[in-house]
Amino acid sequence: MKIVRQLLLVAVAWWLRQGGAPTVAGAPTVAGHCARRCGRVPIPYPFGLERGCVSSEEFLLHCDKTEVRGGRLLLGNYTIRKISVSDSTMVVRLPELHICYNETGQPVNGSDALFIDLSSYLQYRLSATRNNLKVLGCDTPVFVTDERGSALGGCISYCSGYVDLAKETTCLGLACCQVSIPKGLRTVRIGTFPPDRHVSVSKSNPCIVAFVGDTESNDLGKRADLVLDWMIRWNVTCAQAMSDQSSYACGNNTRCDNFGDEPGYRCFCKPGYEGNPYDRSRGCQGN
Asked: Which pairs are disulfide-linked (predicted)?
């Protein structure tokens, strides 16, 4: 009898390790089993590294431990720096356009276009409130288009002499220009005009850098990171989600906000409460 009981305990332990325990809507499979950090980056629910630890497979991330000690948290090929559940944002390492010109205005190295493509990640959008297009350099027009090639905006910065961008903290047109981006973008192309449209080349500042990045970063020398908005559900409104409490993703003491003009919603703690609004077992707690 003891042998049978021991075998049953071993079988149950193995089953739990495989993620076979019953789940509560919006809760990890096995409490304490889920990895909640990759390197220096915390991983809050609804995100996770294992299928039993996420709200749905779209929130699965990867911790690459081959190059960086402790691991590098990845969304596809994008390195994640921070995930916030309080405002449903994710900060990722920024791709940027870098190109240098010779005195005749011809590009000598770098690329004249940069693509940011989140089309395979349905719950993400480039944050229009936290990002804008910045151009660092001299006399090069840079523009942004969407996936259909439609122009979304652009700008050109001017130089009257050498500018040490590492010492600049404001972007006011001198060797730096910036412009806002529209809401709801998943794919953008950042590009320069052809060489015959290039205005002039400064011998002291022959290179330009362009990126879509965080407006809250004021140190131009260190660049900025790209901020993404994410939705817990991206195909239903709050009203539709709340009508089915079994799949509704917001926890206790939270409010549901629709994501702009398209279907999708996010959860936030009500005023006076704090915590993880996506944790269905705890929700937000009084502070």
From this structure: 250-267
